[in-house]
Amino acid sequence: MARMNIFEALRVSHETQRALSARLLASQADSPERQDIFEELKSELLAHETAEERCLYVPLFDHDVTVEASRHAIAEHHEMDEMVEDLEELVGDSAQWMESARKLCEKIAHHLSEEETKFFQQAGKVLTEAQKLSLAKEYEAEFLTLRVKEA
Fold first, then answer.
1. Which residue of 76, 84, 124, 128 has the fewest C-beta atoms within 10 A of its own C-beta?
2. Which domain holds residue 125?
3. Per-residue three-class SS string for the chain
């Protein structure tokens, strides 16, 4: 079986984030699993964005054509982190919590779509095939390390 490139490796977490977002939005206010889903999404986001920044965005700062897109993506990560922090301050069964969760999930969906339809194409033009494979390996190791820390 062929190894994944960096974009394929990132999409694995993207699909997990989409599934967790859908489950979170479908959860019931009085359900104990709502908090569990939120915690899982929070851990997935943190590990993914940290590993992605270290293993994809930082190398892309070496290329003029991907600097601005990398900065934009990192800024969106920061926005999502702040949204998660805001959710942690709210009561999980309140209407305000659910509205904030909906906004977070919309931001996640926007960010993932933007990465997959625009950013990955730009990055794919400046990275060699060997770099794409190497970065995937680095990302997967970093992601797993971060996920274990969160567990």
1. 128
2. 6-150
3. CCCCCHHHHHHHHHHHHHHHHHHHHHCCCCCCHHHHHHHHHHHHHHHHHHHHHHHHHHHHCCCHHHHHHHHHHHHHHHHHHHHHHHHHHCCCCCHHHHHHHHHHHHHHHHHHHHHHHHHHHHHHHHCCHHHHHHHHHHHHHHHHHHHHHHC
Examine residue 106 and state whether it is found in any structural domain, yes or no.
yes
Interval 34-84: pLDDT, tens: 999 999 999 999 999 999 999 999 999 999 999 999 999 999 999 999 999
Query: Domain for residue 59, yes or no?
Result: yes
* Residue 1 belongs to a domain: no
Q: What is the value of pTM for the model shown?
A: 0.93
